[in-house]
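User: I'm new to structure prediction. If I give you an amino acid sequence, what do you actually give back? Let's try with this one:
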Amino acid sequence: MSYPFNHNIKPALNEEDIKIEALDYHGITAAFIDKLKIVERIDARLPVSKAHGAILTHGQRVKAMIINGLGFTQSPIYLSHHFFENKALSVLFGEGVSHEHFNDDALGRTLDAIYTYGVTALFAEIANEIAHEFMPHEKKQRLHLDTTSLKLSGDYAVDEALKLDKETLALPMFGHSKDHRPDLKQVMLSLTVSGPANLPIWLEGLNGNSQDKTNFHETLAQIKEFRAALEKSPDILVIADSALYVQNKLVDTFYTWITRVPENIKLVKELVESDKSDFTWQTLQDGYEGVWLGQNDRGMRQHWGLYYSEQANKRETITLNNRIEKALVEVQKKVNELQKVSFNCEKDAQQAALSFEKKLKYHKLKYDVKPVKKFTRRGRPKKGETPQLAHYQLQISLIQSDKKQKPYRNKLGRFILATNDLNDPNINLKTLITSYKEQQGVERGFRFIKDPQFHLNSIFLKKPARINALMMIMTLCLMVYNAGEYGIRETLKSKNETVLNQVGKATSKPTMRWLFQRMNGINVVLIPGQNTLITGLSEEKKKILRLFGVEIASLYKLA
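Assistant: Good question. You get back a string of structure tokens that encode the predicted 3D arrangement of the chain. For your 559 residues, that looks like this:
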């Protein structure tokens, strides 16, 4: 008996034929990289000839490092081939890409190419194009400028590296550590962000011992030179902390500025330490009060505003009380030593007490001068013999001095902001503080870059050139993250929609990291002869992906 052969029967699949690859939220990251055209912009400036065997372009490798950097794992950014094991590379990069293509040598060559082109120049060109295309256009572009330190640890042969790479932008050196690690060499990252999305538009690697008072103005000089080469660029408003306030450098600038005035200026010290009753305070929002001080020449025309922050007052009060307690312990040790001193006369003892009291910041003395009597000869004193005056000693009690502490307590939560924008009729106490508080955008950027889960706080690369190039990758990570976060928040606002936050409450301002976490568990299932499947898509995940836009939704095969 013969049996007809059924051509429609498909051979059974073995388990090893089915591949399951992790996609999670990495598709969102890849889509935003594509939306910002980062790969194309880099490849236009750093071409790679595939005729010589290159499989991936420099732009594709940068894309990989950004995805890796935003992976929030313990995988260092320059070891992306490990990170991309079992990832859905066909979705993220297209067909024919393997995790082995992102090996150390390939990524290292890209970092070298970035450095050779010029880290600051390359980033400025790319960021300027992105800002022009994607940021809301402002009559006056607001720039927020700050620096942070990046500590260098591990087996880092700095001295040898410097011998081989003398033309580096940022030299690893000991300097003022903003990470409170003076024992480690560091490099400095100067970052400028702009717009409501806080997109980075300028970065610069600086020597580890560089100072902000010099850095800020050198950076602004470079920005001026870069802008001069552009066909058209808006006026700028620079917002920075008190390091910007260097009087001889702010007299004649090409930009308007808002900054905090340093407290080491005599007039500022007098104003912040004065009694609150000396001024008529205006209540502002968010626990702020202010006094408009008006125009202050000081060698340059400017407006000053005196501010008080209730929140800062509470924070600084705790710090001051701790300092007073610590000072009391230290002063008490000195008091104990002073009480052991012998004085020849009462006047000398009194003078010593008064001189000691003058040196105390927070306390005053309550003291007595006691005569010390002794028998003049050794042995048992004779009957009726009386001791003779030998010397004087101090008996001291420490008391908190309200008078001495008053200026320190008066200044708690107080600061002065200045601006040279005298032509803007809208400049007042409220707009000045609102603009200055936007400086938190660049500070949040630093916290993002230095987050331990970002794994870039400690840099292990041995070549200073690559450290400088890696700073650009770090900043591109921040750009993609901020662009994504701003985009989803604007969408939620325009559609009057919300998503659930970490505690299950509706919010229209979620963080990208939280949304990323909600995307975990999404996989790509590859079955030979069948369509690719996307699994792990809950209704919540589908909603979030659709809110990100059509490009991202379609990447996850959502209609």
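You can read the tokens as a compact description of the fold. Here is one thing that stands out. The radius of gyration is 32 Å.
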